[in-house]
Amino acid sequence: MKMIQRVVIGDGERGLVYRNRQFQRVLGSGAYWLFAPFSQVEVVVHDIGKPEYAGRDVEALIGALGACLSEHFALADLGMTDVGLVLKNGKIEDVLAPGTRKLYWTGLVPVEVRAISVADSLEVPADVARRLRQLGVLDKVAVSLVVPAESAGLVFIDGKLARVLEAGAYAFWNFQKNVAAELIERRVQALEVGGQELLTRDKVSLRVNLAASLRVVDVVAARTKVAKYADFVYRELQYGLRRAVAGKTLDELLGDKASLDADIFGYVRGRVTDLGIELLGVGVKDVILPGEMKDILNSVVQAEKAAQANVIRRREEANATRSLLNTARLIEESPVLMRLKELEALEKVTEKIDKLTVFGGLDGLMKQLVSLKQ
């Protein structure tokens, strides 16, 4: 049985000597001879290239080393309102939760633990957030939110509204408190209400498609006064459309859609103004009638157009008759005009025949066609 044990510690290693399972000392790089009767001595070798101490006896080491602890370890001892940033070679490499107590080997990799108080503010500094995002750990320790232009962000801490965020990138520590962030769109939004089956005042069934545009002007009111403002506006548009259609006949709806739009707009705007929502416009896109009603309306339109055509035809016939009567009166009073009309008639006749035989000469023909008044 060996009474002396030889131990070799490399440059990137440290050895912890335990005798009878009790910590004795720290061995630096080098070769050592240890007196170990009955194998009572154990040396645990640690790779300090990975500075995090992985043993389970952190408190025992802190107590045993006492004032000599800083010669071998960097101690992270965070309060309950502090978040720890672990810097290796001057760069952030890890984050420690509040209340953490942890050891890091020194001597090979420079390690620094920087405490950040979260008692007054949970916001992560911008440079720290960028580094943590680069490491891929930001979403594990914080709630992040990117607010684009024409939008706003709302931060809730333990269910209470804590802050309204303008455009930019933000992150908030998610330790000890429940942090939630929401994005609210401030740009103009379009809302479609399609396929509504409705009855008019004269009991005609039809379907109506409606379009509306809106914008959030008060993000706090829109988020806190109603659960989902878009769903609320959608329902109010349905109610407003039903009220407006039920108060009009089919002829009134088809004849003046603008008044229908105005009625819906006035009703819905009054319902959403206090919720921080501005209704910009409402318009009926389509009024869809059942097949039977389409046939009836087509028949009515055809009858109306036929009646209008008959009126125009009768009016034109009366005008033509009146014109003929005036012409006859003029001819009766003027034999010369009568002679001219006869010549026009003769000209039209001769245009349609190839050969014309005149007996008695042209003068005789002209004299027999008309007798002039003396």
Q: Report helical residue fraction.
A: 25-40%
Residues in β-strands, percent: 25-35%
CATH-defined superfamily of the domain at 189-289? Band 7 domain
Poorly predicted runs: none
- Named CATH topology of the domain at 189-289: Tetrahydropterin Synthase, Chain A
The biggest beta sheet reads:
3 strands, antiparallel
Structural write-up:
It is a single chain. By secondary structure, this protein is an alpha+beta fold. Among the domains are: 189-289, 2-Layer Sandwich (Tetrahydropterin Synthase, Chain A), CATH 3.30.479; 295-369, no CATH class. The chain is built from 11 helices and 18 strands. The protein has helices spanning 58-65, 69-72, 126-135, 138-141, 219-224, 229-246, 250-255, 257-272, 291-333, 335-351, 361-369, and strands at residues 4-9, 13-19, 22-27, 30-35, 41-47, 73-77, 82-88, 91-96, 101-105, 111-117, 142-147, 151-157, 160-165, 168-173, 179-185, 189-199, 205-216, 277-288. The strands form 7 sheets. Strands 3-2-5 form a 3-stranded antiparallel β-sheet, covered by helices on one side. Strand 12 (151-157) and strand 13 (160-165) form a beta hairpin. The protein is rod-shaped.
Keywords:
three-stranded antiparallel beta sheet, 11 helices, 374 residues, rod-shaped
Strand and helix map with partners:
Layout: E1 4-9, E2 13-19, E3 22-27, E4 30-35, E5 41-47, H1 58-65, H2 69-72, E6 73-77, E7 82-88, E8 91-96, E9 101-105, E10 111-117, H3 126-135, H4 138-141, E11 142-147, E12 151-157, E13 160-165, E14 168-173, E15 179-185, E16 189-199, E17 205-216, H5 219-224, H6 229-246, H7 250-255, H8 257-272, E18 277-288, H9 291-333, H10 335-351, H11 361-369
Antiparallel strand pairs: 1-4, 2-3, 2-5, 6-9, 7-8, 7-10, 11-14, 12-13, 12-15, 16-17, 17-18
Helix pairs in contact: 6-8, 9-10
